[in-house]
Design brief:
Layout lengths: L9 H4 L2 H6 L2 H8 L6 E5 L7 H8 L4 E6 L2 H9 L6 E5 L14 E5 L8 H10 L7 E6 L16 H10 L3 E9 L2 E7 L3
Parallel strand pairs: 1-2, 1-4, 2-3, 4-5
Antiparallel strand pairs: 5-7, 6-7
Length: 189
């Protein structure tokens, strides 16, 4: 079983160090999020990206914030996000959303925790519109004190392989820093 993030360590998700390394609003803009869009954040945690995303999309948009862990969703709800942010409990690879609802999907440091990365990616693709970006942020496969154990990390080539096996099209790879990378993909019709 993959290492799961411990909700008692939520302070790490909200740290100033993390905000400096990956400023949420700037990161979301760089990923292409704009006013009026619908975004899915799969594995939302405490809402590090989802709350700023709701501010960016505004009342004309929507943010679906999904997590398997009720404690994380409670932490997100405690932030009192705007009403166009829906915090929803989900199963790991079954999201309570219709097909092709998202203009942009994001999963941040979650793929390495899933039981079946292929099933998870297929479900993320299902809720994302054709040709819309699916962004996957992950920890680089390197030994370091921060983040998940080395053996649970996914090399970016592994993620690219999962995407192709899940029927997605690889678009790009970008390293944010030596420890974290972004893979962007999309699905055809």
């Amino acid at each position: 079983m993959a290492h799961k993030f411990d909700p008692s360590h939520t302070h790490r998700l909200e740290s100033e160090e993390r905000r400096r390394a990956m400023p949420p609003e700037r990161t979301l803009r760089m990923l292409g999020l704009r006013r009026g869009m619908t975004m899915v954040d799969a594995g939302v945690g405490s809402g590090f990206f989802a709350v700023p995303a709701a501010e960016l999309v505004g009342p004309e948009g929507r943010v679906y914030a999904l997590d398997v862990e009720p404690a994380m969703l409670e932490l997100l709800r405690a932030k009192r996000p705007p009403p166009w942010l829906d915090a929803l409990r989900c199963e790991e690879a079954r999201f309570p959303l219709p097909d092709a609802v998202a203009d942009l999907s994001l999963t941040c440091f979650v793929l390495h925790e899933t039981q079946s990365p292929l099933t998870f990616l297929r479900e993320l693709a299902r809720v994302t519109k054709p040709y819309a970006p699916i962004h996957i942020l992950e920890w680089a496969k390197r030994r370091q004190p921060e983040g998940p154990p080395f053996e649970d990390r996914l090399h970016h080539h592994q993620v690219e392989g999962f995407l192709l096996k899940a029927g997605l099209c690889f678009q790009r790879l970008e390293f944010f820093n030596p420890s974290q990378y972004l893979v962007t993909a999309f699905r055809k019709r």
